[in-house]
Records
---
Amino acid sequence: MNQYYPKVFLLTCFLIFLQLLIFDRINLFGFMNPSIYIIVLITHRYDLDQFNFIVIGFLLGFMMDILSQSAGSHSLSCVTVSFLRPLITKFSLGPNYDDFSSPFSSGILISNRILYCLLIIIIHELILNAYSYFNWTHTFKILKLTIANSIFTFIILISILNLFNTKE
């Protein structure tokens, strides 16, 4: 447990660095940017304190807001996902999610993992885009960006997670 949080800190710093230097500059089709820094929120262990997880989510979003000069949209979306994650895990992994230590444990079905990742990504992107535009007249644009960025982020995240997946 004492070694877990320094690893999370280093992973967070590395992912923020990659996000700001590489993935924010992709602009596929002129509007699609993946949010790879939410890997920290997706892969966090279940058996740790929920309060610490919400603090990690806030610090992750706050650092993204500071470095990308956004108006708190990353903080709001990361804290919301951190707060809703127990509900998302119960919905996607079933009531016995306490038996596993992480969402990528060996006993979890692939369809449940995909649903878990998609729900976290969609909620994150929806709140991020809704807060960024913050106007009802941009509803279609918010939905378009949410769907496109969620699909693109999902493809990139699953590729990264499968690339660095360790066999248990």
Note: The chain has a mean pLDDT of 86.
---
Amino acid sequence: MAGLDEIRSRMAAFLAEQGLEAVTAWPEVRRSRRNGAAIAVSLRSCEGGPAGFQDYLGERYNQDTGRWEELYGRRVKLTFGLDLYAAQRSGGAAAIDRALDTLSAALNGPGPDGLHILEFSAGETEFQEDSELYHCPVEAVCQARLYAVADEGGAFLDFEIRGERL
């Protein structure tokens, strides 16, 4: 798993640590029935900007390899979809309201490692006739720094997410 898949998984893991049923949207495994509300974590947008001159951040010495590595990075603004879903038999709209309270508290805290939460918003809970689920759209806007490590020959070796926890 690399890149944007890792970012979605990091957000889902953070929400699970907060006591929420969170899964990444469109997983490769079959979904199981859930009790209460579940959050489908997706990435709705990713906007990048420079973090240094031509994305070059400098060099660092790798103690393990005994070689210098170049660092390249970008500042990114990520908009996550954190859509809440609940079946009527799992508590319906009331389950979504409880999960939204927990989600709101989680997003007002320090947030996931490497992601700084700038803002979040929630829409109105509605019943979807076709899926027979209650749905509440939620978005969270985060800021992070993505950087890659290149060896002396210019080949990229690693990709990481960096941010500040407040």
Note: The radius of gyration is 19 Å.
---
Amino acid sequence: MSLEAILSNVEKTGNEKSESIQNATKAEIEQKLSETKKNVKEIEKEGKEASSKIVEQMERQQIPAAELEVRRRRLDIQRQILEETHQTVLENLNDIDGDTIRKIYAKLLMKAPQEGVLRCRETDSKMMNELTSDSECWLIDTKQTFDGPGFIVEGDDFRVDYRFETLVGDMWQDNLSEVNGVLFENE
């Protein structure tokens, strides 16, 4: 065999091996590329599932927290409205006309203990003297520190508070659920 034939045979074998290596490399690259694409799809799927779970978890946590905050704010606003309404009622007590106060005092005096010291504001002293003139049960004291309408009857072992502010406060507490219902029945 001649040198040319040997070189040709070596070249042919080299080309065949080179082509075989290139084909094997292409097949391996295509297989790895296919596996990589498959892994990327799985990672994307896992990422979407993880993201979805995180979103669902955040929704489960955030929505109730937001609803709780809304309820808390609504209750705070309702509490403020109740306080303002109560304060308005107390302020309106000072605007009651004299005839109405006289009638209220007469009814309260019928319920009051028939002994002790009757304490009232100075502006009501004349009216109280007139209302109690038939009775010698009470000693009337007009040097009081309270400003609103009403009176207090005190004895050695009792104290009964008939100040309008106290009576309204007691009624307010006793009827708070009804007041709440009237003010917020549509909510």
Note: The helical segments are 3-93, 98-111, 125-131, 164-174, 176-184.
